[in-house]
Amino acid sequence: VKLRLEYDGARFAGWQWQKNARTVQAELEEAIRRLTGTFSRVTGASRTDAGVHAEGQVANFRTETTLEAARLPSALNAHLPADVAVLEAGDAAEDFHAQRAAVSKLYRYRILSTRVRRPLRAGRVLQVRRALDEQAMRACAERLAGRHDFGAFASERGRYRSTVRTVMRSELLRSGDELHFLIEADGFLYNMVRALVGTLLEAGAGKLGADAFGGLLEGRDRSVAGPTAPAHGLCLVRVNYEPAAAQARASGHEVSER
Amino acid sequence: VKLRLEYDGARFAGWQWQKNARTVQAELEEAIRRLTGTFSRVTGASRTDAGVHAEGQVANFRTETTLEAARLPSALNAHLPADVAVLEAGDAAEDFHAQRAAVSKLYRYRILSTRVRRPLRAGRVLQVRRALDEQAMRACAERLAGRHDFGAFASERGRYRSTVRTVMRSELLRSGDELHFLIEADGFLYNMVRALVGTLLEAGAGKLGADAFGGLLEGRDRSVAGPTAPAHGLCLVRVNYEPAAAQARASGHEVSER
C-alpha cells in the first residue's frame, strides 16, 4: 500500500523510529497495527527531521488486510493523533519502495521578514527581523539548478558515497508578505535544504555574493556556508514517482499502483 | 495609544478579562504594566470569544510613557506570550475608543470540505466531512447584505436594545480547497457570525433553501436557524475607522491618530 501523509512536525522527533521519542513512523505503525491486528514496517520517502512539516510525505507498507485502499485514510486516521493524517492510499506494486522509487522531492521553506512576531504563523514560518536583499537571494537560489556537489551543505558528509545531486527546480518566490524557497532535487543530503536556506539568508543580509555562493557549489570554499536554518520553516511538499505504467513495466508487474 | 493585534485564539478564554482564565486583554494589560510600571485599562474593538483568532483586532489604552508609539510593538511583544503580538501602534486622539469609534468590522470564517483531516490547518479551519452545495450557500450569503434584524442569529437576544445591523459585505469565496465566508458589518450580535455559518452549512447540506434563509432575516421563522459553528474557524480580520482627519474634526482635536 502506498500512502500520502500530512503532518505538523512541531511535536514529533522527526519521521524515523527512535527509542523513547514520538515519531511519525512509530505513530503510523501503531495505527496500522491497531487497524489490522498485525505489525507492518512502514518506509517513508523522506526521513524528515524533528520539527519539519509535510503535506506530501509518501510511505509504503505491506499488509494482508482485506480493507480496500480507498477506505484506509479514514480507517487509519481514526487511530492517528491530531497532528498527522493519511490523505490518500492506493495499492502499490509488490516491490514499491517509497524512498528508492522516488524520482524527486519538492521542499518549501517559508521566510517572513518582519520586525514583529506573527502568532498565527508561529511554528510554520521562519521570522527574520532584518530586511532581506531579495534579489541577492534570488540570484543565489537560481545558481542551484543543475548537477552540483552539495558537500558544503551536508551536516554529515562522511555518510555519503557521493554528495552530488541534481536540482530540477530552485526558486525564491514572493507569496504575499512571505518569501518561499522551493527546491526540487533527485535527492537531498542530511540538513541540505536548511543549510542552503541558512546560506541564502547570509546572502540576503549582504554577507555573501552570488559568486561566493557559486564557489561553495564548486567545492572551492566550504567554510563560508551559512548556519543551518531552523526546522519549523521547512515542509516536504511532494514526492514524485515515475508514472505508474512506466514503473510497472520496469518492475515486470502489471499496473497496480494508483 | 491605538494598537493593532494578532492572536491565535486556541489557548485563550477569549478577549475579555475573566477571573481565573487566560484572556488576551489580561495578557496585554500585564505586558503594559510590566513595560510602563503602571496599570492601564485596555479596551478592544471586539470581544472575541474563546478560540476565535484575530489578525486585526484593535485596542486602545492611556499611558504616561515617554516611549514613542513606533517602539511599542517590539517593547510590548517582549512581554507578551507567543500566541499574541502587537503588530502596530500609533498615537490616538484623547477620546479614541476602539469599540465605539469602529465604523465596521470584517470577519472571515474558513471551511474545508474534505473527508480526511488536514493536520497543518487544524485549529484554523472548520473541517466538514460532507460535500457542500456551494451555490446554495453563496445564494444565502448574498442575502445578508443590507440592513436586517439579526435577532434569529444572536445567542443572547435579550441583552440588545436593537438587533438590527447593517451588513456592508457578505460573500462566500473559494480560496484553493477552502470556502471563506467574509462578512463586514457595523456591528455584530453575540455569536452572530458563528450562527450565520451554522445556518449557511445547513443550506450547504440541502436542509435550508435561500427563501427559508430570507425568512429568518425577516424574523418570520426563528426556529430554523442552524447551530452555532465552532470558534476555531473564525478570525477577526480588520476593524475600520473613519479616516483620521474626519475623526479629529468630529472630536474637536488636532489630528494625532496615525
Sequence-ordered SSE layout with sheet pairings:
2 copies of one chain form a homodimer.
Chain A: E1 2-7, H1 24-36, E2 43-44, E3 53-60, H2 72-77, E4 84-90, E5 104-113, E6 126-128, H3 134-143, E7 146-149, E8 164-175, E9 178-185, H4 192-204, H5 210-217, E10 234-240, H6 244-251
Parallel strand pairs in A: 3-10, 5-6
Antiparallel strand pairs in A: 1-3, 1-4, 2-3, 5-9, 5-10, 7-8, 8-9
Low-confidence stretches of chain A: 248-258
Overall SS class of chain A: alpha+beta
Instruction: Name the chain pair with the biggest interface and residue counts per chain.
Output: A-B, 23 and 23 residues
What's the number of helices of chain A?
Answer: 6
Largest sheet of chain A: 10 strands, mixed
The share of residues in extended strands of chain A comes to 25-35%
Rg from Cα of chain A: 19 Å
In total, the number of strands of chain A is 10
| Quaternary organisation | homodimer
* Mean pLDDT figure of chain A: 91
Secondary-structure element sequence of chain A? Answer: EHEEHEEEHEEEHHEH
Bulk shape of chain A: globular
DSSP helix fraction of chain A:
10-25%
Task: Write structural notes for this entry.
Two copies of one chain form a homodimer. Chain A is α+β, with helices and mostly antiparallel strands and 258 residues long. Chain A has six helices and ten strands. Chain A has helices spanning 24-36, 72-77, 134-143, 192-204, 210-217, 244-251; strands at 2-7, 43-44, 53-60, 84-90, 104-113, 126-128, 146-149, 164-175, 178-185, 234-240. In chain A, strands 1, 2, 3, 4, 5, 6, 7, 8, 9 and 10 form a ten-stranded mixed β-sheet that branches. In chain A, helix 3 packs parallel to helix 5 (210-217). Chain A is globular, with a radius of gyration of 19 Å. The model of chain A is unreliable at 248-258 (pLDDT under 50). Chain A binds chain B through residues 6-8, 53, 55, 73-74, 77, 82-87, 115-120, 122, 124, 235, and chain B through 6-8, 53, 55, 73-74, 77, 82-87, 115-120, 122, 124, 235.
